[in-house]
Design a protein that fits this description.
443 residues; alpha/beta; Rossmann fold; Dihydrodipicolinate Reductase, domain 2; 3 domains; seven-stranded mixed sheet; globular
Length: 443
């Protein structure tokens, strides 16, 4: 019997675990799901006879290492900074590793040792990053095979709320790790535009949000995503003039989030004692509003808007002007306070459905002719936690693990992303069976 260790039982793990369990009988697999929450594990394994729960502290080597040692392959859905614990164990016990997170500097530094051990540490194997790499690489390699020169590459992706479940003015609800939403853009962004490197600091990322048209959905806003330039060599695009990756949101969201940044409410490094503190008092302190001044008037003046502006409606709906006590007691940051508020305001109800949108836009020249290719995918989730986000993050990892254990894919060696044909061809074929299909338009 083969054993698969899944570390992490958060929102993104439900479809992955469900997929692995559905394949367990015919493949004779045992699925161990490890997490700090027994309830989260129970929700994912649902009393399956092929599953085993492991309630552990993932940072505790004595609890973690025996699980890695007995596994035939390890899939990590832990927060990014915790992958390294599993990575070191996988190197020690000679196990292949799959994660959905960006390659960290620590993970990248392990590349030589991973290669010497003949192991595969496949990172960025989710949605974005993940499916974006596979679909983009397929397009790029196809164009390059016919001697096309790619001059522009733009990739957009967003986890959104389905129109039928869109019930708030922000047009957003949490469909994945809420902490990642709060910290989005914190490191700033870098990309290539018309031959020039563009760097955007965190404070300006949402302010510079532009719009694109997405088939059937109309206009969506986008903001640049992290350091796009690190993928230039991975995508092998030496002649590219424009190259960037971006995140999609509703236009209202980007306006509202920029306002929260401008007010200092997303700060993760300040210090706030919330004991007996109201939302009104917190906002007054953060915006340095004098006691004798009306807070609403002060805030809208600081933002350069009026109470008739959509941005004010968004802020007011959150309740940050209310004189009610902040529920989160203790010492925390403004970002922590905001997160507690948004967990309530942007909660996905059991009947809600999410939606994932991804779109690539490429311009290339072949035999003197300029061509534009747009490749797009829209996928709606299901109810009760089987979200589109969980599906698109979890399935690529599950399919790769299955194909490796079945000896249908020979694991490439090193710390990698899924940009090679031996990986993306079989995976995209199976993903299509689950409705993850891209529609291409060539002009």
């Amino acid at each position: 019997m083969q054993t698969i260790l899944v570390a992490g039982a958060g929102k993104s793990s439900k479809y992955l675990v469900h997929y692995l369990l559905n394949n367990s009988l015919r493949n004779k697999w045992k699925i161990i799901v490890a997490d700090g929450s027994a309830a989260a594990i129970a929700d994912k394994i649902n009393h399956s006879p092929y599953a085993e729960a492991a309630v552990i502290d993932i940072t505790d080597a004595e609890q973690r290492q025996p699980l890695v040692e007995m596994a035939d392959i390890v899939i990590s859905l832990m927060p990014p900074h915790l992958h390294i614990h599993l990575a070191k164990d996988c190197l020690k016990y000679k196990k292949n590793l799959i994660t959905s997170s960006y390659i960290s500097d620590e993970m990248k530094a392990m590349d030589d040792d991973v290669k010497k051990a003949g192991l595969m540490f496949m990172c960025e194997m989710g949605l974005d990053p993940g499916i974006d790499h596979m679909t983009a690489s397929k397009i790029i390699h196809t164009i390059q095979r016919v001697a096309g020169t790619i001059t522009s590459f733009k990739s957009y992706c967003g986890g959104l709320i389905a129109p039928e479940s869109d019930s708030n003015p922000w047009h957003y609800k949490f469909t994945w790790n809420p902490n990642n939403v709060i910290s989005a853009g914190l490191g700033g962004s870098k990309y290539l535009f018309q031959g020039k490197t563009v760097e955007v600091p965190y404070e300006k990322i949402f302010e510079n949000a532009k719009k694109i048209k997405v088939d059937t959905l109309g206009l969506l806003a986008y903001y640049p995503n992290r350091d796009s330039l690190r993928y230039l060599s991975m995508y092998n695009l030496p002649d590219i003039k424009t190259f960037f990756r971006a995140t999609l949101r509703n236009p209202s969201f980007t306006k509202g989030w920029q306002a929260l940044i401008n007010l200092g409410l997303t700060n993760m490094e300040d210090y706030v004692n919330t004991e007996n503190l109201t939302w009104h008092e917190w906002l007054r302190t953060k915006t340095e509003c004098p006691v004798e001044t009306n807070l609403v008037n002060h805030v809208v003046a600081k933002l350069g808007i009026t109470t008739e502006d959509k941005t004010y409606t968004l802020l007011n709906w959150l309740g940050i002007f209310n004189k009610e006590p902040i529920k989160a007691n203790g010492k925390t940051s403004s970002g922590g306070i905001l997160l507690e508020l948004l967990l309530e305001k942007w909660e996905m109800k059991p009947e809600d459905k999410d939606m994932v949108v991804m779109q690539h836009e490429l311009e290339y020249i072949n035999r003197g002719n300029k061509t534009t290719l747009t490749s797009s995918m829209t996928l709606k989730g299901e109810k009760n936690g089987f979200s589109a986000m969980a599906k698109t993050v979890g399935l690529p990892m599950g399919i790769l693990a299955k194909m490796i254990l079945q000896n249908k894919i020979k694991p490439p060696v090193g710390v990698l992303i899924p940009n090679m044909p031996s990986i993306y061809r079989p995976l995209l074929t199976e993903l299509a069976h689950f409705g993850i299909v891209f529609n291409d338009i060539v002009e």
